[in-house]
Every structure is written in C-alpha cells, then in structure tokens.
Amino acid sequence: MMQDYFWLALKGIRNRQLRSWLTMIGIFIGVASVVALISLGQGLQDAINREFASFGVDKLIIQGKSAGFGAPGTFSAGKVTEHDIDVLERVSGSEVVAGRLIKTATIGFGDEQQARAVLSMPSDNKKAELITEANNYKILDGRMLKGSDKDKVVVGYYYAYGSKLFAKPVLTGNKVIINGRKFEVVGVLDRLGDPFRDRAVLMNQDVMDEFFETEGELSLLVVQVKEGQDMNRAADDIERAMRKDRNLDEGKEDFEIQTPQQLLQSVTVIINIVQAVVIGIAAISILVGSIGIMNTMYTAVIERTKEIGIMKATGARNEHILLLFLTESGLLGMAGGGIGVLIGVSIGKLVEFSASQSLGSDLLQASFPWYLIVGALLFSLVVGAISGVLPAMQASRLKPADALRYE
Question: Which end of the chain is more exposed for a tag (fewer CB within 10 A), N or C?
Fold first, then answer.
C-alpha cells in the first residue's frame, strides 16, 4: 500500500518537473550550507584533537597575557623570561620546564629573501626533548640541532619539499642568510600540517639570545607536569609561584597559564559559534524552501481537485488523500535534501583541496560521518512533510461531489 503512495507521489512530482526543481532550490541551498559547514567544522575539530593528542595531556603553556592575535608569544602585554624557568622548576608539580623564543627574521637563499619565523630550541637535552615531543618534531633529512651547534639551523618541511618557499629547495648542507648572517642547514623537519611551523626555522636558544640580543626574553614556557599530578592543581601552584615572584595581586596577573583541555575547549567554542551562526543563516533558506513546498502543494491540490474527486468516488478515504499529499511533499523535501547533500559534500571537498593547495596544510579537512548525511536527509524529509500538512488536510477534506464539479 505504501509503495502505491510513493509511486503516485513520484508521478505527481515528475509531471511538474520545472515547478518541483524551483521548489527545491531553497531546501538544497540550505542543506548544502549546513552539510558543508558541519563537515568542515568536524574535520577541523578532528585535526585539532589530533594536534592536542600529539602535544600531550601532561603539559602546560605559559606566556605573557595576550594583547592581540598571532602565534603564541608574538603579541603579549606581559612577558616571560629565563628567570621564570628557575621559579617554575622549584614548583613541586613541575618535571621539566623549557622556554621558547619566537622572532621574525629575513631568510635569504640564493637571490631571494622572505620574512619568516625563527624558533628557539633549548640547548639542554631534557628541555630539547620536551619541545620536540610537544611539537611532534621529526627529522626527515639530516639531523636535529645539538646543544653545541652555533651557526647551524633546522628548517621546516616547506623549505625543501611541497610548496617550496624559494625557487630552489633548501636542502641539508645548504647555507641560508638570516638577517645578514650565514647559517648551515643541518636538518629538514617532516611535515607537521601547520603552515606556521612548516615554514619556520629552528635555532639554538643560546645563539638566538646573542643574535637577537634578547637578554633572557622568552615568548612562552612549556611545563611538563609530573606523572600522576593533577593538571589543574599544578596550574594553580604555578600561578601562585609566579604571582608571588612578581609581587602581583590575584586577578592582576600579566601572564596566562593554559592546560591542553582549556586550549581545546576555547577552540571548540569558537568553532561551535561559527557553525551556529552559519546554520542560523542556512535555516532561513530552508524556511523559504519549506514555504515554497507548501505553495507548490496548494497549487497541486487546486490542479488535481477533479482527480481527488475521482479517487474519493472510487473508494479513497480522507486519510488516503492526506497520506498521498504528505508523501509527495516529503519526497520534494527529501529530493532537495539529497541534492543539497551532494552539493555540500562537493563544497566541503573543494574547500579542503583549496586550503591544502593555498596554505600547504592538511589541517582543514572535510569529514562526512554517516549520521550527518542521514540526518540531513531525514531532516529534509520531515521539513517537506510538515510543509505539506495544511495542503494535504485541505485535499483530504474535499467532498467528492464538489471536487468532480470543479473546473
């Protein structure tokens, strides 16, 4: 019986192809927007989760209180220094404390020059291991910096491979000019998927201190918490120690401490807000589409009044007519949703490809879990069916005699 309703409804849609296509526009635009955005948001969330998993749940990041946007430590109202490392190493929950300096310098190779980030690596082996682990550094060619290295650097992946930064690849053994001084490249990092780090240069902390005349300045601190220590308690202990050392009142800190969970939560909140805003905008398109379906179904009732009369005269009951028109409006919604899903998937993959080509990063990826696709289709079906309720009720209440006389 249900199969008969389906084929009758499908026949009604095919008989009004142009009107059906125009009716579905609002639905598939809205659904495409929702699918594309949620897939990209989910993909970005998955990538961020992977990044934080590689960073580890036993590490804290400390930096001067932010005064703007940028890479960690590049825009800060407060500051952290080598002295803070001594303070934090005396905190009971701290296992290893390492500092990093981030500076922008002019990198020259051949006849070309570019402004890129230079990141410090601690000379102490334990601290260097902490930074290596926190950043998931892996050497692709050559070797990592040694504590005794002076005029030597390690370059990011894109200096040598992929979206090369210079006309010729910068390989192990080559010389680069950094702010007028010559450095030998001793290693190339494997790809991290982060454009900032894949385009950065690593230099020993001692060399950077002398080269940039920083006098103990740091951009951020990384603290590895002792095994079994509660992260929040460790963060509180560190905050108290730094506040006491700086003679600051509670609530007036010029530094900030972030746990991996806090960082992840902050990013997740931003992604959710963006998704909510765009989904709200897409909902307007879906509302317009649902009104279009309702209008189309009212028109269909008028056009098929005599057909309804014949069906009732031959035994069709009110619920049969109601179900027929609800099936038709639901199919309109689901068809629009199906087209919207295809468009949304295409947009998501196009954005993913464009981001990979332009940014040289795999961070922005589209993810299409089964529940997103099924949910979009069911939602479209429900929207279509609800939009057809009033026209279907009108059709089901027509009296056979009046319907047969309709011209």
Answer: C
